[in-house]
Amino acid sequence: MAKDIILRLSIRSVRLHLLRSILAALGIVIGVVAIASMGMMGANMTLSVTDQLSDMANILVVREYTGGGMRMITTGGGGAQAIFSGSGSSDDQDWVTDKQFKDIQRIAAQYGTIYAVYSQSDRIEVGSLGGRTTIYGLDTAVIPEIFTLQEGAFPKSTNQVMVGPMLAERFGLTLGTRIDIGNPDEGTTTVRVSGILEERGMSMDMNTDSAIIGSQKLYTGIYGGEGEYTQVNIVLDDIDNADQAITDLKDELNKKGDVITVQDSSRMMESITSTLSTLTGFVMSIAGISLLVAAVSIFNVMMMSVTERIREIGILRSIGTQKGEVRRMFLYEAGILGLVGAGIGAAASLTLGYLVVLAMVGTTSYFFTPQSLIYVPFAMAVGIGICVASGVYPAWKASNLDPIEALRAE
Amino acid sequence: MGAVSVIELDHVTKIYPLKAGDVVALDDVTLRIDRGEFIAIMGPSGSGKSTLLNQIGCLDVPTRGDLLISGKNIRKMIDQELTTLRLATIGFIFQKFNLIPVLTAFENVEYPYLMKNRREDITGRVRNLLLSVGIDNAMAQHRPPELSGGQQQRVSIARALVNDPAILLCDEPTGNLDSKTGDQIMELLVELHRQGRTIITVTHDARVSRFADRIISLTDGRVS
Ligand SMILES: Nc1ncnc2c1ncn2[C@@H]1O[C@H](COP(=O)(O)OP(=O)(O)O)[C@@H](O)[C@H]1O
Ligand SMILES: [Mg+2]
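Predict the joint structure of the above. Result:
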């Protein structure tokens, strides 16, 4: 039993109207669960993305400057140029020229390995299955340096390609499978799978998990555009050189206006994390609306409680209870509703949040990290805070009742 | 210096401002009540008896005039001071008992004490008080709705006494009781008076007024 008799009164009052109290607290439960699971989902997503990205943190990507921000779509070759060339560009091209590639090699060779990448999205057919994927064209000398195979061998001739593991799964590709690249109406090129890549995860330089990787000769054979690279990748030997390398490249190549852009993963990671946290905040504030609804129902129940107990308040005041104590009694009552609601909500959000994270992020390996679990006490605090805040006006109203009037109430 | 007055009303007027017009509940009342007096306030319904009691009980302050409790003028007091004074010097006993329904009889008696002296174990004191008004330990664990009217009024007397107040204010204490139970309650009050407490009781009952040292009659808010 509570030592403080005011707290005892609050507890008894909640218990007296148990069903009503539970229904009011239910709103808080839902709100807390919503906020906590959304927060945890965001945290888990961020953690999982940054973990995947940081594996590639040592890569710089050089692209032609197109005026806008970062382009996530990999394009290349003649066809895409007209569509994607940016408005602010000093020239109309949308690719890194062979001369620029040579310049980049000259400037940045000291920092690591440099290679040029062609890429293009195209239609492919495997037997009766059709679909779209990205075709990469790379220097065959570089391929063994940057890729790891799960099985098979690196391409030795122009009609041999490697495929990403997800693509292999999607089309049932095995070593030796034939793939027709291109639109059947415009003529296709047939290649054979010589190797299947290890999973590489999400990355900013190349997304090879569901792509086809062949030689530059194969690529230009199909799409032309020799020496018009989509991008140039620099694999840094030391990640601490990233800023220096970027400065060197920009100083020289962007002397007469912006010609190239350089992206580095850490900056990209920052931008992804900040996008994710904006998104999480947005989703959480939508979840917070459910708490607003809960606040209304708590307010309602508290006002009912005050109205029903006007006479009791009069009695308490007449036998020497200070206004502040009456206020405290009602704030405690709201606090108890909040505490119960938030407690149940916390327990529920651990289970529900786990399921949400499993469903939305695909992995729960980050679920029990502090960054993720922090959302449970956070949501609880918000829930309890909202409850107590909803009780402020009713409590104030109760404490300011005229004792004589209150005693006269029935 | 003669008898010490615990209560002094000096031209006290209480007006309730209502939309339909002001109600003058007390009209220029001047009176002195000495320590240890047993006063009966009588008068027809609506004559201002409860209003007078509430003024003396510091539940409200006069519209005009001065009201002194143990020499302190309450007219200039703020709510917090009034409440503290009420807690320390006034014990209320009401017609409708006015116990807190969610608290046990024991807790009801304990309550004003806890408001005044926090965190002190007074189990023995509360038990003795309850026994002295005829409520045993088992009964003390019941909540008011489980008790008879007479038992509830006994509990409310114990509650009024727990802070050892100088003044007991009773608003028709036997009004909701049958005559036999009412007599028992009056005996309790008489006994408390004998122990030296100042008692002011509002009553319609001529038998109650027999116990009183003095009767104050009210008509339309005026002492007659
Ligand atoms: N809180 C109040 N607000 C307005 N009028 C009141 C209030 N209390 C009492 N009155 C009015 O004041 C007059 C005296 O009331 P009251 O003191 O309760 O009389 P009694 O107790 O003698 O029956 C009555 O006319 C009553 O209607
Ligand atoms: Mg009355």
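The longest strand of chain A covers residues 112-126.
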